[in-house]
């Protein structure tokens, strides 16, 4: 199997794309560690992967909390060793115009979408450097370059994630570490469907969105050894309608 003996960490692994990435990578031999704030959802995903014969551990964690991130990654390293693959997938979004946006909401999107990715990267990089091997994939958004009303904080956080990707790639490319990103379009996940149900002005049909399996195939390639020549790439994964 292509990911045998690979240690994978996925943030936002309690549902949606994070859960799908975890299931698909575990099915191909990876030892997967999923992080999210909701412990019940994490356990559901972990148990489903284990029933299918995969290896998965669940770690409740608020990735915007520096001490929590340090603690979780120390536990992962003690349990399994050096992390080979990090997928920064966790995201928080709320559509609010600038004049109506409380500082707390702006800060939440920056903290989870950008600072959380930075904190996780910082924990895995020393081990990857020692091993001269690592894959870091940051899940950005089409909103980082296709702009919509009410998306200013989310867009800023996701554009920042692209800049972080490019800078880290330059820092780490001589250490055998690939740092890449995807600009992700609207995807048919539970979270997206919940948002659409609450916003009756949006009429896009789920069949017109990206599907979870489509995104997962791209992610699997970008964290595989086949993507070794790609460094600092930000790939459009928009689908037909995004």
Describe the overall structure.
This protein is α/β, with parallel strands linked by helices and 242 residues long. The protein is built from 7 helices and 7 strands. α1 (16-27) links the parallel β1 and β2 (31-36).
Layout: helices, strands, pairs:
Elements: E1 7-11, H1 16-27, E2 31-36, H2 39-51, E3 55-60, H3 66-80, E4 85-88, H4 103-131, E5 134-141, H5 152-172, E6 177-184, H6 190-198, H7 212-222, E7 234-237
Parallel strand pairs: 1-2, 1-4, 2-3, 4-5, 5-6, 6-7
Helix pairs in contact: 1-2, 1-7, 3-4, 4-5
Strand order across the biggest sheet? Answer: 3-2-1-4-5-6-7
- The counted number of beta strands is 7
Note the total helix count.
Answer: 7
- CATH-defined superfamily: NAD(P)-binding Rossmann-like Domain
| Largest beta-sheet details | 7 strands, parallel
**What is the C-level CATH assignment?**
Alpha Beta
Compressed to H and E, one letter per element, the order equals: EHEHEHEHEHEHHE
* Overall morphology: globular
Question: At the third CATH level, what is the topology name?
Answer: Rossmann fold
**What's the pLDDT, averaged over the residues?**
93
Q: What would you say the CATH architecture is?
A: 3-Layer(aba) Sandwich
């Amino acid at each position: 199997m292509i990911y045998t003996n690979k240690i994978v960490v996925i943030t936002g692994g309690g549902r949606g794309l994070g859960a799908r990435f975890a299931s698909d990578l575990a099915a191909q031999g990876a030892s997967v560690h999923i992080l999210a704030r909701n412990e019940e959802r994490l356990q559901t995903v972990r148990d489903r992967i284990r029933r299918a014969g995969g290896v998965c551990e669940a770690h409740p964690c608020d990735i915007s909390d520096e001490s929590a991130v340090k603690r979780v990654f120390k536990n992962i390293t003690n349990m399994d060793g050096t992390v080979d693959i990090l997928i920064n997938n966790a995201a928080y979004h709320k559509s609010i115009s600038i004049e109506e946006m409380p500082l707390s909401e702006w800060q939440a999107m920056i903290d989870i979408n950008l600072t959380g990715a930075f904190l996780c990267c910082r924990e895995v990089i020393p081990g990857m450097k020692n091993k001269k091997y690592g894959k870091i994939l940051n899940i950005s958004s089409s909103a980082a370059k296709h702009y919509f009303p009410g998306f200013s904080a989310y867009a800023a956080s996701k554009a920042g994630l692209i800049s972080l990707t490019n800078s880290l790639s330059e820092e780490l490319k001589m250490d055998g570490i690939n740092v890449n990103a995807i600009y992700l379009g609207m995807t048919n996940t539970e979270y997206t469907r919940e948002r659409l149900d609450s916003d009756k002005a949006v009429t896009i049909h789920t069949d017109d969105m990206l599907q979870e399996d489509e995104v997962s195939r791209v992610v699997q390639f970008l964290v595989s050894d086949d993507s070794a020549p790609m460094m600092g790439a930000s790939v459009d994964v928009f689908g037909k309608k995004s």
